[in-house]
Amino acid sequence: MSVDPIKIKNMLLTSAQTILNHIPELTKLDCDLGDGDHGTTMEKIAKTIHSQVNLWDEKTDVKESLESLNGVLEDVSGGSAAPLVGSYFCGMAEAADNTEDTDSFIKTILLGGYDEFYDMSGAEVGGKTMMDAIYPAIQIIRSCDTISAQVLESAAAAAKAGSDATADMLAKFGRGRYIGVRALGHIDPGSVTFALFFEGLAKGYQI
């Protein structure tokens, strides 16, 4: 068995494009809670992912290419979002195992991304952060026997619900923690980014 690089390519390209389609929204959300740079940062990150992954073909070594992508992402500057998103891709690259079948590979890299993100960020559910979208999605992925379109759609829905729930949370990390109760009613932009990421993965899987 081997990994289908085109399947992974479609998933990552669709995720990047889904984020790019929502840059104005991400910017506005961050203006409510932070310094307004999240949209700009995510535009740079998503464009970097798109340009790198778009070069993949059916002969691409996916593990090596994820490692290369991670190296490029490490050079993207822009607030706290860049290293946080970068940590997820770092975890995916480290966990990648080309000997797996494609669906097992997808599960492995997504869980690896979560582990690295958790270790790097220290964020917990309920803190009004990216974790509020990532954790519920990963719980669904972790519990599945095998990756499928339905599993990824359920994970994306869970990420969206987790992100939406941040509107009712006080911020415990980032600039948002300095505005106290004024953060209520505002959705965390980082959580929206990862909700879009998982939405794109689900759509790209079905291409």
Describe this structure in words.
With 207 residues, the chain is an all-alpha fold. It has a single domain, classed as Serine Threonine Protein Phosphatase 5, Tetratricopeptide repeat (Alpha Horseshoe), CATH 1.25.40.340. Helices cover 66% and strands 0% of the residues. The chain has 9 helices and no strands. Helix 1 (5-20) runs antiparallel to helix 3, helix 1 packs antiparallel against helix 9 and helix 8 packs antiparallel against helix 9. The model has no long low-confidence stretch (mean pLDDT 94).
Provide the low-confidence segments as ranges.
none
Q: Report the count of strand segments.
A: 0
In CATH, the homologous superfamily goes by the name: DhaL domain
Strand content: under 5%
Global morphology: globular
> Could you tell me how far the N terminus lies from the C terminus, measured between alpha carbons in angstroms?
21 Å
Topology summary:
Layout: H1 5-20, H2 23-33, H3 38-53, H4 62-73, H5 81-95, H6 102-121, H7 131-143, H8 149-165, H9 189-205
Helix pairs in contact: 1-3, 1-9, 2-3, 2-9, 3-4, 4-5, 5-6, 6-7, 7-8, 7-9, 8-9
Short synopsis of the structure:
The protein is mostly helical and 207 residues long. It has a single domain (5-205), classed as Alpha Horseshoe (Serine Threonine Protein Phosphatase 5, Tetratricopeptide repeat). The protein is built from 9 helices and no strands.
Task: Give me some keywords for this one.
mainly alpha, 0% strand, 9 helices, 207 residues, Dihydroxyacetone_Kinase, kinase, globular, DhaL_dom, Serine Threonine Protein Phosphatase 5, Tetratricopeptide repeat
